[in-house]
Each structure stands twice: as C-alpha cells, then as structure tokens.
Amino acid sequence: MTIVPYDEQYRAEVLALSLRAWEPAFPLVQESVPPFVYDCFYPAGWRARQYDDLAAVVDDEPENVDVALDGDSPIGWVCTRLHPDDNMGEMYVLVVDPARQRDGIGRALMKGSFERVKAAGLRMIMVETGDDPGHAPARAAYEANGFQRWPVARYFKDLADGS
C-alpha cells in the first residue's frame, strides 16, 4: 500500500468505494433519527447526497486529499482540512474500502492526516462522526487512535408538524 496525493484519475473509484463503505451504516442511521430529519437530509436518498457531498470534496479541495493505493487501485482516502484560527486540523472525510477494512489502511491514512496537521504547525486534530449504531466502527477506530470524545448535543424540531 502507498499513500499519494489525490489525482483526478482516482475520482470515480474513490467515490464508488465511499458509497460501498457507507452502505452498511445508513440503514442504521435511518432507524436512529426521526423520519423528518432523515427526509430533510436525504430527500433523494443517502447515496445521492453522499455522492454529491464527496464529489464536491474531491473536486473543490483536491489539495487536501490523500489516497491509499494497492498498486494503482484506490482502497481508501482522507481529506484533511486546516483551521489555523483554532490551532486545529480536521479529518473531514476518512474512507476505507469495505473489502480492506481492518487491514491498517485507516490507521495509515489517519497517521498521514496527523502529519499534515503537525507540518502546518497546528496542535490538535478533530473528526466528527455519528452517534448511531451504524457509525460504531468509526467511533471505535477513532478512539483506538487516541481521539477523545467531545460531548455535543444536536437537536431538530419538525416545523411542518403544526406546533
């Protein structure tokens, strides 16, 4: 495995592997949130929203993306954003092909993200993920790599229900 800067030639493959990676999570997300919330976030379905959001990442900020390769084939990727005002980097996206999960690819991509943030002279790195059962593997991976949880509460109210 090698990790290289993103190149447009990887676009279709990184987007496809991203959808495969999140396939098991989204049914559990859908079961965990109020239906109106899920419908607002994913009116055309989660695949369409995820594809569009991730395509925007690789298209709009390719300089922040690194790709893990097995030979010439992408098997994972990470987007690292820098927030100097907060003395912080952000691991904005981390994806590993489901067929290669638990092979150390995520750990290697995280390490590269950490190094990118350190090289920018920033003190800490953060990552966000869901608190639903579908994101339990992601939470476990982040905690195993030294991330500490920040308690956050996010609330939604359906304004279409008349109250």
Automatic annotation (TrEMBL):
Q: Which Pfam families match?
A: Acetyltransf_1
Query: What CDD domains does its record include?
Result: NAT_SF
Q: Which Gene3D superfamilies match?
A: 3.40.630.30
By its UniProt entry, which SUPFAM superfamilies does this protein fall under?
Answer: Acyl-CoA N-acyltransferases (Nat)
User: Which UniProt keywords are present, listed alphabetically?
Assistant: Acyltransferase, Transferase
Which PROSITE patterns does the protein's record reference? GNAT
Matches recorded under InterPro entries? Acyl_CoA_acyltransferase (IPR016181), Bact_Acetyltransf (IPR050832), GNAT_dom (IPR000182)
Annotated signal sequence range: none
What positions does the domain N-acetyltransferase occupy? 1-163
Q: What is this protein called?
A: GNAT family N-acetyltransferase
Which lineage do the record's taxonomy fields give for this organism? Bacteria, Bacillati, Actinomycetota, Actinomycetes, Mycobacteriales
